[in-house]
Specification:
By secondary structure, the protein is an alpha/beta fold. The protein folds into two domains: 142 residues, Aspartate Aminotransferase, domain 1; 230 residues, Aspartate Aminotransferase, domain 2. It is 41% helix and 14% strand. It is built from twelve helices and twelve strands. A seven-stranded mixed beta sheet has the order 2-8-7-6-5-3-4, with helices on both faces. Helix 4 packs across helix 5, helix 6 runs parallel beside helix 7 and helix 10 runs parallel beside helix 12. The longest helix has 28 residues. The chain is globular, with a radius of gyration of 21 Å. The protein binds pyridoxal-5'-phosphate (PLP). Pyridoxal-5'-phosphate binds next to helix 4.
Length: 390
């Protein structure tokens, strides 16, 4: 029987790192020790306070649908967080609790993007964001970025690449894979540029809690006319709970509610009750401790990769990634990553997963593992490089 895959499937790119992960699991099954620095997931468990809040609710048995936009108490806590962290008042009706940032993107693009409309994105960027726009028939306009703009789109680039088919621009700060932040002045200019062009500005702020030397600035500081995508996954350590949030401009509230009701009815109820504890002082104290641990890991990895001979033109300011140039060692980072896994049991992600620009020279290292383990990882990496140069 002929299969009838929808055409859009051919436009959705697959993650090369998944193949690497599959191979890593095979090696582990053979008893080989693999160090995982390819995964974008913190090694810390979900904080106890959050788990207990989830269990407490589960025990009531009242695990029913919530309103599509989320539990009002949770919307309220998210709004309070913006006031406390950024001094910004957000109308609770604009906040939607979603199944992760991924769910937030589905809604944001679903309510704003028509087929064949373009979304401007940096190359490199997190590939799923581009695939979400493709799912709605949108077209990603990838714009090569470099260290000069901290690997972020600039207002100038947005203006230069804007066309009659452009609908919006997406900025993820800190970025995955580069871990770099947009400069606040540049963020403001980029938002104003998109708004003046009549487009939609999408701000992926999922790594906001994980910034080490300064505070991340939310796009909401400069305009209410923006989509904010955020999540409990990374800073709050809740990847598997599938919960995040979206903040929409006023005129999108009704449409977003309707779409949420239809696509997934509501975000997981126990996860929402668990997330109510995410902003408690005890939880935040624990999360701040973890943030300082991530900062120490970043420093360790950054210094060691430089010492080994990787190029990292700017020190990443956030997330848990270092995007390093390996041109001193190879012109094929994909092969390099695959050989490194086979011969040393060290898994990292090749640049081709994040775009085309300079991708064959780039590797993403995640510091989602302890310094003690990363010490071993660095020995393996050096051993691998030394062996190649013999
Ligand atoms: C930049 C970025 N945005 C969005 C997501 C989606 O995260 P989640 O759906 O777990 O909230 C990720 C996950 O790695 C990411 O790196």
């Amino acid at each position: 029987m002929q299969r009838r895959l929808a055409e859009r499937n051919s436009k959705i790119s697959s993650f090369h790192v998944m193949e690497l992960l599959r191979r890593a699991k095979q090696l582990e099954a053979q008893g080989i020790d693999v160090i995982h620095m390819e995964i974008g997931e913190p090694d810390f468990p979900t904080p106890r306070t959050i788990i207990e809040a989830g269990i407490k609710h589960l025990k009531t048995g009242a695990v029913k649908y919530t309103p599509a936009a989320g539990l009002p108490e949770l919307q309220n806590k998210i709004a309070a967080f913006y006031l406390q962290e950024h001094g910004i008042t957000v109308d609770q009706r604009r906040i939607f609790v979603t199944p992760g940032a991924s769910g937030a993107f589905l809604l944001a693009f679903g309510v704003s993007l028509n087929p064949n409309e373009e979304v401007l994105m940096a190359d490199p960027c997190y590939p799923c964001n581009s695939n979400f726009s493709t799912l709605f028939g949108g077209i990603t306009k990838s714009i090569p970025v470099d260290a000069n703009s901290h690997y972020q789109l600039t207002a100038q680039q947005i203006k230069a690449h804007w066309s009659s088919s452009s609908k919006g621009a997406l900025i993820a700060s800190p970025s995955n894979p580069t871990g770099t932040l947009i400069n606040p002045e540049e963020l403001k200019k980029a938002i104003n540029t998109v708004n003046n062009l009549g487009g939609c500005f999408y701000s992926d702020e999922i790594y906001h809690g994980l910034v080490y030397d300064q505070k991340a600035v939310t796009a909401l500081k400069y305009s209410d006319n923006v989509f904010i995508i955020n999540s409990f996954s990374k800073y709050f350590g809740m990847t598997g709970w599938r919960i995040g949030w979206l903040i929409v401009p006023d005129e999108f509230i009704e449409a977003t509610e309707k779409l949420a009701q239809n696509i997934y009815i509501a975000t997981s109820t126990q996860s929402q009750y668990a997330a109510l504890a995410a902003f408690d002082d005890t939880t935040l104290t624990e999360l701040e401790y973890r943030r300082s641990e991530f900062a120490a890991r970043r420093n360790f990895l950054y210094e060691n990769l430089l010492r080994i001979g990787f190029e990292i033109p700017i020190k990443p300011e956030g997330a848990f990634y270092i995007y390093a140039n390996c041109k001193k060692f190879t012109d094929d980072s994909h092969q390099f990553a695959s050989d490194l896994l086979e011969s040393e049991g060290l898994a990292i992600t090749p640049g081709i997963d994040f775009g085309k620009h300079e991708a064959h020279h780039m590797l993403r290292f995640s510091y989602t593992t302890s310094i003690a383990i990363m010490k071993v990882a660095m020995q393996r990496l050096e051993h691998f490089i030394n062996k190649r140069s013999l």
